[in-house]
Amino acid sequence: PRLIEALQIAASLRARGLAVPRQLRLGLPQRMQSAELRLRGFAPAVWIERTRFEEQLDRLATLLTSSLAVASEATVIDLRFQDRAVLWSGR
Predict the structure, then answer these.
(1) What number is the average pLDDT over the span 54-73?
(2) CB-based burial of residue 9 (10 Å sphere; 0-12 exposed, 13-18 middle, 19+ buried)?
(3) Could you identify which of 18, 26, 37, 44 might form a hypothetical disulfide with 74, taking C-beta atoms 3.0 to 4.6 angstroms apart as the criterion?
(4) How far is residue 3's CA from residue 13's CA, in Å, rounded to a whole number?
(5) Which among 21, 59, 14 has a CA at the least distance from the CA of 40?
(6) What's the mean pLDDT in 24-53?
(7) Model-level pTM?
Protein backbone atom coordinates (compact mmCIF):
# COMPACT_ATOMS: atom_id res chain seq x y z
CA PRO A 1 0.00 0.00 0.00
CA ARG A 2 2.78 2.51 0.76
CA LEU A 3 4.49 1.91 -2.57
CA ILE A 4 1.21 2.52 -4.39
CA GLU A 5 0.63 5.66 -2.32
CA ALA A 6 4.14 6.92 -3.11
CA LEU A 7 3.61 6.28 -6.82
CA GLN A 8 0.28 8.16 -6.71
CA ILE A 9 1.94 11.17 -5.07
CA ALA A 10 4.81 11.12 -7.58
CA ALA A 11 2.35 10.92 -10.50
CA SER A 12 0.32 13.77 -9.03
CA LEU A 13 3.45 15.94 -8.78
CA ARG A 14 4.37 15.17 -12.36
CA ALA A 15 0.83 15.96 -13.59
CA ARG A 16 1.20 19.43 -12.07
CA GLY A 17 4.53 20.02 -13.78
CA LEU A 18 6.47 19.66 -10.53
CA ALA A 19 9.71 17.75 -10.13
CA VAL A 20 9.59 14.09 -9.24
CA PRO A 21 10.64 13.79 -5.60
CA ARG A 22 14.21 12.79 -4.88
CA GLN A 23 12.92 11.56 -1.52
CA LEU A 24 9.44 10.72 -0.24
CA ARG A 25 8.86 9.62 3.34
CA LEU A 26 5.44 8.33 4.39
CA GLY A 27 4.21 7.94 7.96
CA LEU A 28 6.81 10.00 9.74
CA PRO A 29 7.15 9.45 13.50
CA GLN A 30 4.72 11.70 15.41
CA ARG A 31 3.10 12.65 12.09
CA MET A 32 1.76 9.30 10.90
CA GLN A 33 -0.75 10.81 8.46
CA SER A 34 1.90 13.07 6.95
CA ALA A 35 4.44 12.69 4.21
CA GLU A 36 7.65 14.60 3.58
CA LEU A 37 8.71 15.36 0.02
CA ARG A 38 12.13 16.47 -1.14
CA LEU A 39 11.90 17.73 -4.72
CA ARG A 40 14.83 17.67 -7.13
CA GLY A 41 16.46 21.08 -7.40
CA PHE A 42 14.46 22.53 -4.49
CA ALA A 43 15.96 22.68 -0.99
CA PRO A 44 12.96 22.97 1.37
CA ALA A 45 11.18 19.88 2.63
CA VAL A 46 7.47 19.83 1.82
CA TRP A 47 5.03 18.37 4.36
CA ILE A 48 1.64 17.16 3.19
CA GLU A 49 -1.23 15.26 4.75
CA ARG A 50 -1.45 11.90 3.03
CA THR A 51 -5.26 11.84 2.94
CA ARG A 52 -5.53 15.25 1.19
CA PHE A 53 -2.42 15.35 -0.95
CA GLU A 54 -4.15 16.31 -4.23
CA GLU A 55 -5.39 19.69 -2.99
CA GLN A 56 -2.15 20.31 -1.13
CA LEU A 57 -0.08 19.66 -4.25
CA ASP A 58 -2.31 22.14 -6.11
CA ARG A 59 -1.36 24.72 -3.45
CA LEU A 60 2.31 23.79 -3.80
CA ALA A 61 2.19 24.28 -7.57
CA THR A 62 0.52 27.68 -7.11
CA LEU A 63 3.05 28.70 -4.46
CA LEU A 64 6.03 27.73 -6.59
CA THR A 65 4.60 29.55 -9.61
CA SER A 66 3.80 32.76 -7.75
CA SER A 67 6.42 32.92 -4.98
CA LEU A 68 9.36 30.67 -5.84
CA ALA A 69 11.98 33.02 -4.35
CA VAL A 70 10.17 33.26 -1.01
CA ALA A 71 9.41 29.52 -0.90
CA SER A 72 13.04 28.66 -1.70
CA GLU A 73 14.24 30.47 1.43
CA ALA A 74 12.19 28.23 3.74
CA THR A 75 13.50 25.11 5.44
CA VAL A 76 10.05 23.48 5.42
CA ILE A 77 6.86 24.24 3.53
CA ASP A 78 4.00 22.83 5.59
CA LEU A 79 0.83 22.37 3.53
CA ARG A 80 -1.11 20.37 6.13
CA PHE A 81 -3.21 23.34 7.21
CA GLN A 82 -6.66 23.92 5.68
CA ASP A 83 -6.07 26.59 3.06
CA ARG A 84 -2.59 27.91 3.62
CA ALA A 85 1.06 27.12 3.31
CA VAL A 86 3.22 27.72 6.37
CA LEU A 87 6.87 28.40 5.59
CA TRP A 88 9.27 27.45 8.38
CA SER A 89 12.88 28.49 8.59
CA GLY A 90 15.29 26.70 10.89
CA ARG A 91 14.47 23.33 12.40
Answers:
(1) 94
(2) buried
(3) 44
(4) 15
(5) 21
(6) 87
(7) 0.87
Query: Is residue 5 within a helix (H) or strand (E), and if so which, with residue range?
Result: helix 2-15
Strand bridging mode 76-78 / 45-49: parallel
Question: Are 79 and 56 spatial neighbours (Cβ–Cβ below 8 Å)?
Answer: yes
User: Which DSSP string corresponds to 20-68?
Assistant: PEEEEEEEETTEEEEEEEEETT--SEEEEEGGGHHHHHHHHHHHHHH-H
pLDDT value of position 84: 87
* Selection from 16, 34, 18, 15 nearest residue 26 by Cα: 34
Q: How far is CA 19 from the centre of its chain?
A: 11
Q: Which of 24-28, 30-34, 47-51 shows the lowest per-residue confidence on average (mean pLDDT)?
A: 30-34
